[in-house]
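so my prof wants the structure for this chain in the tokens format not the other one, which i didnt know existed until like an hour ago. anyway here's the sequence
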Amino acid sequence: MIRQRVALVALSAFAVLGMTSVVTPASRADAAAQASRDDGPVIVAHRGASGYRPEHTLAAYELAARMGADYLEPDLVTTKDGVLVARHEPEIGGTTDVADHPEFAGRKTTKVVDGAPVTGWFAEDFTLAELKTLRAKERIPQLRPNNTIYDGRFEVPTLQEVIDLTKRLSRELRRPIGIYPETKHPTYFAEQGLPLEPALVRTLDRNGLNHPGARVYVQSFEVGNLQRLDRQLRVPLVQLIAGSGAPYDFVASGDERTYDDLVTPRGLAAIARYAEGIGPAKDRIIPTDAQGYLAEPTTLVDDAHAAGLTVHPWTFRAENAFLPADFDSSADPAAWGDILAEHEAFLATGIDGLFADHPDIAVEAARSLTTGT
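here's what i got, hopefully its the right format
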């Protein structure tokens, strides 16, 4: 069975929960590499099984685990009372039914998020109790109309609830289910007086998950917060890299470096001083040409590996709207194309894992790679 070796890793991880030791960055890097080597490519359920259920709901996370995902990815924002919850962005109007609650109509406002004005309702303006009165809805109904049948059924989960779910499912499924949290817009939340990082560290500490054997990665599109977390966390850190632009903390501080600078050999060596992996936009692994077809792979995977970094690109989705033209099934953007072929093309580059909205398909692609069938 493809995931049997992971169970052995989990048993050794559980055995050291009560032990204290001096942990070096190298041991975190070893943990990140081991997670990939022991079971083939790491499959990260992007916001849960978000191709089948509204994203960032316990239903989406549970389905992803049952489909075989190794890690569940909660994007983290915070409530007014400092509780970390799973939402794609601080603005929650696009992913909840808050607009249908007249008692919250007066909370609609415009804020500047990473330099751009955003109008809506914001998680940090709600207490957890208030947020729990809302229900999730599908974020992209035009592409995932089937998911809309679940609108209004599921709460906004806390990070603690996601962790509790992984513990229950790890016991039930008899294999470890990890978490891969992302700190969303850390500069923005620091400006709101509600920094994400202290609550994240406390939560991982409280749950015995701040050690190299824990099934945890922590990721961010910004650099400074990962550098600070490097001094507080003993789990692998992952530098996210967008297809264009720059980390917002660079922009805010006047640093002229961009994501392009981070993927050079020099930039990757700098990342390796505080992180164990990179999470690049998939186009940085295999770009597309002017017609949308796959071009030749870049050297990024080899360059990252040379720097000692694992590589987990994002995001793989089955709908034609998100696929390279090579794999489109029709002109209908919501129809599914040949996502298995896309997975296979990217896995052939030597990536160590990937983020998928349809984790069952990613698991099948990884199984085929591992078994040769």
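also thought this was worth mentioning. The chain has 14 helices and 13 strands.
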